[in-house]
Amino acid sequence: MLNFENASPLALNESEFATTEAGEGDALILVHGGVSDLRSWASQFDAFAERFRTIAYSRRYHRPNPSIPTDSPDRIETHVDDLAALIEKLGASPTHIVGHSWGGLIALLLALKKPEICRSLVLVEPPLVSMHVAVPPKTAQMIGLLLRSPRLALAIAK
Q1: 16: which strand partners?
Q2: CA-to-CA distance for 38 and 18, rounded, in angstroms?
Q3: Is the pTM of this model over 0.85?
């Protein structure tokens, strides 16, 4: 069973990330969403590991990693850079990436930034923020969206 007890800390980008790995073959990295951690892949992990070198990790500020300091921004670019560093450090390039929710957006942004390290992407319920504004959003885009769709603009701002 995939849990924190069988995860190992991995130092990347001046932080530590709980990671776990099983299986052989092409690398497959599982990127969880915004309100979860590596355990969100518990039901799929063993099945993937039968065919792939399967890697799950808890993203920055997600359990059991250190929490976000109250005065720190949580920029998506940091998570994209963390995923790239993880792939490089584990020698997993090019890799298949499965991302859920914010993990899907992180995987998509990584593929745009460094397509050579991505073999394939599976995006499960990625947020559609990038269809409305740039990531990160520009001030003029947010003002225009606020005028057109205040609820959507406030959700994106959060």
Answers
A1: 11
A2: 8
A3: no
